[in-house]
Specification:
mainly beta, OB fold (Dihydrolipoamide Acetyltransferase, E2P), 2 helices
Length: 166
């Protein structure tokens, strides 16, 4: 039997986690997600950018938490005062080091297997174009697949490896 040289167009290019921010749907690569936690508040960092909610202690590590909506220039998630807010802990590569960073979102909804054929390039140039890796449709809605490293680059006061409190 001869081996096939073509790839299956329905093969999953990646798995993504779909989350909500500012009543819109976004996604991050599932391989980047370390944990999903309920948000119980964060310690504010003086003079920090508006998108930085603060820091949280996750098993002895101090982890910065960014408000996804604020980072995208939308109404901040914190202003809505929702009790169902979640922090999605992501693994990012920033300033030459691996870091864990939290993204504050209104919630998470699905894990989706994305065939490569469903991914579409973002339209044109705009202020947040570097944050957008691709677009896709899920449950009859357009979802923005975010580029995690680009989204987080420059958003943190110290792009250094996470520090332990131990």
């Amino acid at each position: 039997m001869e081996a096939s040289n073509h790839t299956d167009p329905t093969a999953a290019a990646c798995q993504v986690l779909v989350l909500q921010a500012a009543s819109q749907r976004y996604a991050v690569q599932l391989l980047r997600v370390r944990e999903i936690r309920r948000f119980h508040g964060a310690v504010r960092v003086p003079h920090a950018d508006e998108s930085l909610c603060g820091v949280v202690n996750v098993r002895g590590a101090i982890v910065p938490v960014l408000d996804l909506a604020a980072r995208l220039g939308l109404q901040t998630t914190r202003e809505k005062g929702r009790s169902t807010q979640v922090v999605v802990l992501l693994q990012a590569h920033l300033a030459g080091a691996d870091r864990t960073v939290g993204l504050l979102a209104e919630g998470v909804s699905d894990v989706v297997n994305l065939p490569e054929s469903t991914l579409r390039p973002p339209p044109g140039e705009h202020e947040h174009a570097a944050f957008v890796a691709n677009l896709f449709t899920h449950a009859d809605e357009t979802v923005v697949l975010l580029s995690v490293d680009e989204l987080l680059a420059g958003a943190l006061p110290l792009d250094t490896p996470e520090r332990s409190t131990t």
